[in-house]
Specification:
Number of strands of chain A: 10
Structural class of chain A: alpha/beta
Largest interface: A-B, 32 and 23 residues
Distance between the termini of chain A: 35 Å
Oligomer: heterodimer
Number of strands of chain B: 0
Radius of gyration of chain B: 18 Å
Largest sheet of chain B: none
Radius of gyration of chain A: 18 Å
Structural class of chain B: mainly alpha
Order of helices and strands of chain B: HHHHHHHHHHH
Strand order of the largest sheet of chain A: 6-7-8-3-9-10
Helix content of chain A: 25-40%
Amino acid sequence: MPEPAIHVRGLTRTFTLAKGPVHAVRGIDLTVRRGEILGFLGPNGAGKTTTVRMLTTLLPPSGGHAEVAGHDLLADPAGVRRRIGYVAQSGGLDPACGVREELITQGRLHRLTRGQAGERAEELARDLALVELMERPTVALSGGQRRRLEIALGLVNRPEVLFLDEPSTGLDPGSRAELWELVRRVRAVHGTTVFLTTHYLDEADALADRIVVVDGGAVVAEGTPAELKSRHTGDPAASLQDAFLAITGRATAGEPLSI
Amino acid sequence: MTLLTDTGIIFGRYLRATLRSRTSLLFGMLQPLLFLALFGPLLTGFDLGVGGSSWQALVPGVLVQLALLGGSFVGLGLLVERNLGVIDRMRVTPVSPLALLLGRTLRDVVQLLVQSILLVGLGVAFGLRAPLGGIVLGLLFVAVLAAALSALSYGLAMNVGTPPEFAAIANTAAMPLMLLSGLLLPMSLAPGWLDAASRVVPLRYTVDAVRQVFQGHYANATVLTGAAVTVALAAACVFGGARLFSRTRA
């Protein structure tokens, strides 16, 4: 079996707050195969973002270890950073900056020469329908356009693994469908592994090859959407919502119940 | 040398951002400019006890004030960017983390130098007379001080939650530093206890030294002490700022 894209064992993160320690992540094990789209699903506060921040080298784990894109997270974080793309929930766009400038600067930060960075920016602009927007400041983009630019920034270095943290938050239905199509296309064309956190069940159902459900900082279930539905509800016609309720005992916080 | 290249990339990015918003460049220097224009003329008849004309005492003070107020608050912009996820996005690249700090700090120094040159020009229009070598040396002092305060401000901004919190801290720190270092009126006018208290504030040594070089005195104890204190402060602030900047929080 080829080396997995992500291999995590016993990952933990404890925050020390004034009121005492908070165990945000309590020992996560997971493996993501190369080229897989993994849905990392859980209610708000389940530890999804904390896990992503650890796997993207932004936050040192309290314990455990992980390999991402073939590089050890703790021993070689720089090696990990070279090979991954990360699109945060907040997006990471500077409103004052222009689209082209953001793309070129991101390329330069990935150690491309000025010329290479310019070419890569054009290439991504064509792929992600940003050509007409290149001279605009990012503040002038619509929600869907912003998300496309954010993903373009995450793809500048042709990452082996792309982390998308709650990518469809705040998008209208049309832009969400467009986003899903884009994620599928990136995987199909480049074989990119996608680690996608979401609390939208329909998103996980539509996009993920496999789902890992987290709750209270630990993995509580995993499998393909079909497996989760039949295993946890005993009914192959059940919705992922039913399975999710059976697994966590609650609905995803603040989200509508129907898929 | 990747640190230099990376610093250059970050510097370029933020310098372009600054050039796009020329209003902030102007408004940033409005307050010191007003001090020069509306406060300076009041001093022309006084002996400030530091030799030279009152302009040779006031312009250095206003320059250091510009570095202090400009430098302390640069973190505010970083904090906004941090909350937008811009900093995290840049940190998940091979870029040297130190370059993320130094590139911005360098931009601040360049911005401050441009503002300082304009201020000195205005001072000359009002009646400042100082040797060119002294002015250049004075600007060098101000540049080193600005680097120190900017780096520290950025380090702080990476560890504070919200812009209002940051502004409160920066204000609380800047105000006593400004009053205690004798920026507007030299501490030679102060009663003994105030003069003594001001000696624990590093900025006092910087401004005293700049006043000396503006009078053409380059190699006396005040200038050398000022240089030593300013460089030591810069080293400590850049080191501390870098540590704070790369500290990871939740």
